[in-house]
Amino acid sequence: MTYLERLHPRQGLRVLVTAGASGIGAAIAAAFLEAGAKVAICDVDEAALDKFRAEHPDVQGVAADVSDPEAVDRLFDVVEHTFGGLDVLVNNAGVSGPTGMIETLSIDEIRRTIEIDLVGQLVVIRRAAKLLKQSNDAAIINISSVAGRFGYAMRSPYSASKWGIVGLTASLAKEMGPEGVRVNAILPGVVRGARMDRVITAKAEASGRTFAEVEEEYVSSISLRRMVEPDDVALTVLFLSSPAGANISGQAIGVCANVEYL
Ligand code: NAD
């Protein structure tokens, strides 16, 4: 294989992307489809699933909440039945969780955030493990966040979950490496898209400023003076799934520049 061929995930790779109907997950799913992979996605938003399916008729789309073990069982029934196995799992599903000082957060909000963002990844990997170990070339890519390395004031349940994902990744890399499964985490910075639009809008409304002013505050706090694009994350996922990523496991890889805002 040439150097450039080794940068490309192999044709026919069987891939599952959680929360693949919109945002970063949709960019990852679209990138794998373009690379010739067989791709399944799950999402809780059925309208978004329908939209993604209409744009990408080759995708296998399943409605499933990653924190619901029974829904995840049904998702894997579809994956096994359709693909006969799995080579790459991208654990992308996550919610921002509540914003506020710890004493103002409800127990339900705290539990729900950790249930989706951290336990959800465990639930999915627990079900995927057998299939991945049967593959000759398997990779798990867990989407964490820069909040999983530096913390994030006013977002402690989110940050704790994302930090937990880094520990989960390191542990599973040790556990599954001898059986041929690479496990890595990606830590995106501030990513352009619907979620950041919601965050910026809320901040603008709370402070009486315009969307553009708050957006500029975020951008100017990043050393490269630009937000991360969903495609930047997707390309790193492709790289980790390709032969070029064959000797990378147990790593927490930032797709970001220095960010001062957290
Ligand atoms: P998003 O808020 O735009 O949501 C993407 C998708 O997740 C939606 O289609 C939604 O329906 C789905 N989803 C939500 N809860 C789900 C669940 N329980 N089960 C299945 N699907 C579910 O998110 P995004 O910005 O695309 O972020 C994707 C991942 O990247 C998340 O884990 C997020 O924490 C992480 N991340 C995002 C940013 C950012 O700036 N956007 C930065 C760092 C990390």
Automatic annotation (TrEMBL):
Keywords: Membrane, Oxidoreductase, Transmembrane, Transmembrane helix. InterPro entries: NAD(P)-bd_dom_sf, Sc_DH/Rdtase_CS, SDR_fam. The chain crosses the membrane at residues 12-33. GO terms for molecular function: oxidoreductase activity, acting on the CH-OH group of donors, NAD or NADP as acceptor. It comes from the Bacteria. Belongs to the short-chain dehydrogenases/reductases (SDR) family. This is SDR family oxidoreductase. It comes from Jiella pacifica. The lineage of its organism: Bacteria, Pseudomonadati, Pseudomonadota, Alphaproteobacteria, Hyphomicrobiales.
